[in-house]
Amino acid sequence: MNEFSPGNVKGFAVKDYASLKDGELIELAASSDQLAFQYLVKRHSGWAYGFVVKTVRDAESAWDIVQEAFVRVYRNLTEFRQEASFNTWFHRILYNLCVDHWRRKGKRLEVEYMDTLASDDAGPSGGSGFVYKSPEKTARHREVVGLLEQALGALSFDHRTIILMREIDGMSYEEIAEILGCPKGTVMSRLHHARKNITDFLVQRGYISSEI
Questions:
Q1: Is the entire prediction scored with pTM above 0.70?
Q2: What is the CATH number of the domain that holds 169?
Q3: Contacts of 50-54 spanning 24+ positions with Cβ under 8 A
Q4: Residues with Cβ < 8 Å from 158, sequence gap 6 or more?
Q5: Model pLDDT for residues 105-163, shown as the tens digit of each residue
Q6: CATH assignment of the domain containing 66
Q7: Residue 150 belongs to what domain range?
Q8: Which of 31, 42, 131, 163 would bridge with 6, disulfide CB 3.0–4.6 Å?
């Protein structure tokens, strides 16, 4: 798949391609415009790798998964519906590959929650006291950020994935439900319990909600 690597994109008019929407790039790529597809890869490979490496917790495998995801996109360009979101479509491909990877490693996709409807919330921090923040200069806050990474790694596969989709990628409940193939209420329930598990992880280590 080296021919699709962003580092190999040379000599084409970036300005022209940069002005195109994902759907337009896909339409061009489906018509054998290799440069359009290369720019699509360049546009989305960064966040895709970030999502996968945090999901599978394996940097080397993450690149392989992202590369395979783009291969699948390329093979199915003509199946993409223009009215759909490429971001959602691509997330679904990445998620399915992460699940396959996890199963090949012989790990269980444990889900530590009850699929009862959790109360809706107003935003990413909704009600649990948990929200991701950028690191500040104080040692105390850097320590919290480090523990957040540990807490994320301690979550079940499903909980970790849903936290990444909602808190990091800013996806809506509806988008997540479409990717996971489950009802919106299940998404809300998993997210509620994932946030609670992270908050409990930090509180057990001496942090109060205002620091989380």
A1: no
A2: 1.10.10.10
A3: 50/168, 51/91, 51/94, 51/164, 51/165, 51/168, 51/169, 52/94, 52/97, 52/98, 54/152, 54/160, 54/164, 54/168
A4: 109, 110, 111, 190
A5: 765 444 443 333 333 443 433 444 444 444 444 566 567 667 778 888 888 888 999 99
A6: 1.10.1740.10
A7: 139-211
A8: 42
| 64-94 confidence digits (pLDDT tens) | 999 999 999 999 998 887 767 899 999 999 9
Summarize the confidence of residues 170-182 as an average pLDDT. 91
Number of domains composing the chain: 2
Domain termination site, one of 52, 85, 104: 104
- Domain final residue, candidates 80, 104, 128: 104
